[in-house]
Design a protein that fits this description.
The structure is a single chain. The longest helix is centred in the C-terminal third of the chain and has 18 residues, at 181-198. α4 crosses α5 and α7 (209-215) packs across α8 (246-258). The protein has helices spanning 61-69, 108-112, 114-118, 126-135, 151-163, 181-198, 209-215, 246-258, and strands at residues 4-5, 8-9, 19-30, 33-45, 50-54, 76-81, 84-85, 93-96, 169-173, 201-205, 218-222, 229-234. The chain has two domains: 13-92 and 169-264, 3-Layer(aba) Sandwich (Rossmann fold); 102-166, no CATH class. The chain has eight helices and twelve strands. β3 (19-30) and β4 (33-45) form a beta hairpin. Helix content is 30%, strand content 25%. It has a six-stranded mixed sheet with strand order 8-9-10-5-11-12, with helices on both faces. The protein has a four-stranded antiparallel sheet with strand order 4-3-6-7, with helices on one face. A two-stranded antiparallel ribbon has the order 1-2. It is an alpha/beta fold.
Length: 265
Amino acid sequence: MVALEHGRFETGQPAGLELDVRNVSHAFDLQGAPLRVLDDVTLRAEPGEFVALLGPSGCGKSTLLRLVAGLEPPRAGRLLADGAPVTGPHPSRVVVFQDPTLYPWRTVWDNVALGLEARGLLKQRRARVDEALRLVGLGGFAKAYPHQLSGGMAQRTALARALVNDPRLLVLDEPLGKLDSLTRIAMQGEIVRLWQRAGFTALLVTHDIEEALLMATRIVVFSERPARVKAEIAIDRPYPRHRDDPVLVDLRHKVLDMLGLAGDW
């Protein structure tokens, strides 16, 4: 069994993988014509880094996450995970979407166990399901059904479903976008603590600049579609972070200016 202890696998391999996106361009076919969504994007995430992607709505951020997850190949360029080409989905790269997409007829425990069950590993790794639920604070809800959960609890279940596979890259596509503000704040801290404990590499798409500043070690700012990298900003601040930190307030203004929104704040 592969398990995490102090952010490392039993093999001694770092928990987080190294991600390289090299000169990636992508387009969709729209009524017989290509719709360009990514234009020569190059970025890198070091093992254990937490990278947030910011940019205008519809610029191509979520498309980039789909490529990183191996859900489809890019039209041009390369994606590498620990130096190996990304050619399709892999349990080491797990996506958490905005919608938890839980099966209503399965209990919380059974929803979290789905990945292990599909891979034929549930019998050997049943304890991982209980551990994942404990990590997200749902140890007492294993027998509950999705309709009995709040929005935050449903998203915690989705996180547990991802964590049970010991991902080396956690891909987060607006995972908190549908939550109320208080739950969202609590979940931001929860995800950061999970990342600190497990040591995986995290890639987050969000439209919330404050969220990116509070959670990430680095922000990548994209242009309008087709997305190009406009800037990368390192956030060298300790955790837990506070919204009134003058350094974060200054960075927020800089990011707003990069996105052409400085005059609206």
